[in-house]
Model the fold of this input.
Amino acid sequence: MAHEIHIDELRKTYGGKPVLGPVSLTLEAGTITAIIGRSGCGKTTLLRCLGGLEEASAGRITIGDGRLARREIGYVFQEPRLMPWLNVARNTGFGVEGATKRQAVAEALEIVGLTAAASLLPKQLSGGMAQRVALARALAPRPEVLLLDEPFSALDPFSREQMQEHLLHLHAHYGATMVLITHDMDEALALAHRIIVLTGPPGIVAGDLRPDLPKPVDRSALAFFEWKRRLTRLLAGQVDDSQLVLDEKPDLARQRLAI
Ligand SMILES: Nc1ncnc2c1ncn2[C@@H]1O[C@H](COP(=O)(O)OP(=O)(O)OP(=O)(O)O)[C@@H](O)[C@H]1O
Ligand SMILES: [Mg+2]
Done:
């Protein structure tokens, strides 16, 4: 069962310096949300708070009924963070327990196209391969919530599109609630039901788009370019108010947009 993610007035400060918030959002169960924004605006901080890796300075995050175990949340870090002494298969199976472990690892490796690399050590992998192992490790326990921090940034454009297709396929099968950080507008439009544009620091929501593009998207369609143009404008700080779908507190959101 997928879970809704409810973020209420979330703030994060480091040593008194505000880096995130206030952010209030409800991410519907079983959807893919992309978070896009300039470097340093607080995307990773937000994701780390969602994953319980960072404690919020203020506000509240509720996932599902609030009783989700940490292992039910899959997290792909911005850098692969593999254990150098474990081979690909053992890295992939690290968070998995029980009789189905072998099968779960085999499936996850197949999804990321690394079945043949199962016995290699991290030092024998390219950057893109290491990133795919990190994705396989997050997928293997079949999490209800999957948090992905630029998971495909080290991949070549072809492999990247292939992995995006795999992720969509996976989502269609398992239906986890996914949050994906990306700098790539095409990727956000290809994968996400909803795109949150973050500006900062401190990171706040500057745009909330729901592209109605049928999946798999046609990247050469006029509608695709239209959405890309809107996104570009938002990222450049030109607020295109008519195209925004404001969240549950429209007045507050409008105030925030006056930047
Ligand atoms: N542990 C930390 N201690 C102090 N400041 C931090 C810490 N982690 C992040 N920051 C600061 O918080 C801000 C947001 O960082 P964050 O990593 O969330 O950005 P980001 O949007 O993910 O950037 P990028 O696109 O480059 O990955 C930055 O100004 C960063 O310097
Ligand atoms: Mg980051």
